[in-house]
Design a protein that fits this description.
The complex is a heterodimer. By secondary structure, chain A is mostly beta strands. Chain A has strands spanning 3-6, 11-14, 19-21, 23-26, 32-38, 44-50, 56-59, 62-65, 75-77, 86-93, 101-102, 106-111. Chain A is globular, with a radius of gyration of 13 Å. In chain B, 0% of the residues lie in helices and 49% in strands. The chains are: A mainly beta, B mainly beta.
Chain lengths: 112, 113
């Protein structure tokens, strides 16, 4: 069945460091891929998405490229800020289904 | 409304009791979803509504769980004979077009003692 595997945390970085959170997926068909972010005390928010192979989603300095050959959708940011501290979830929805499959989440803490 | 509203934000109940969790989606969103998020896990699908009907309820864990959306807007998730294992954050989300990404509510944290 469809599933998402993401890098386990927690991840702790210094401000302005480079961030990578790995995400790989298993899916039938041609899924759409998403990153959601959950800030402390808040609900899940859509961060970025990509709907087909080689698409790059980007938002707030974060980027992720849909790589079909490696079934990956790694999240990157060149210079993290303290305000990026949150839990990040990779997710997919298949083109034949109607539900999202989420990874277990990666907690990121950025220290000044 | 401007966002997806869930009430209550917190609910503590005794084992064996009945609870109802409410979701008010974004106005005009025909698709509504319920997810459950246990501590340290990602959200897990429970049920999906398209309009008033449950289009997919394959994620409901057992027959103690039931959800309705009688007028195609507000939805209520109902849990009978609650168990301690039901403790989790219950998330509601809505969308206009499937595949665009959901808008999630802040969730209801259910604690069964």
């Amino acid at each position: 069945g469809d599933s998402v595997t993401q890098m386990e945390g927690p991840v702790t970085l210094s401000e302005e460091a480079f961030l990578t959170i790995n995400c790989t997926y298993t899916a039938t068909g041609y899924p759409s891929l998403f990153w959601y972010v959950q800030y402390p005390g808040e609900g899940l928010q859509l961060l970025l998405k990509a709907t087909k192979a080689d698409d790059k989603g980007s938002n707030k300095g974060f980027e992720a490229t849909y790589r079909k050959e490696t079934t990956s959708f790694h999240l990157e940011k060149g210079s993290v800020q303290v305000s990026d501290s949150a839990v990040y979830f990779c997710a997919l929805v298949s083109n034949t289904g109607n539900q999202f499959y989420f990874g277990t989440g990666t907690s990121l803490t950025v220290i000044p | 409304g401007a966002g997806v509203s869930q009430t209550p934000s917190n609910k503590v109940t005794e084992k064996g009791k009945y609870v109802e969790l409410r979701c008010d989606p974004i106005s005009g969103h025909t698709a509504l979803y319920w997810y459950r998020q246990s501590l340290g896990q990602g959200p897990e699908f429970l049920i999906y509504f398209q309009g008033t009907g449950a289009a997919d309820d394959s994620g409901l864990p057992n027959d103690r769980f039931f959800a309705v959306r009688p007028e195609g807007s507000v939805s209520t998730l109902k849990i009978q004979r609650t168990e301690r294992g039901d403790s989790a954050v219950y998330l509601c989300a809505s969308s206009l077009n499937f595949g665009d990404g959901y808008t999630f509510g802040s969730g209801t944290r259910l604690t069964v003692v």
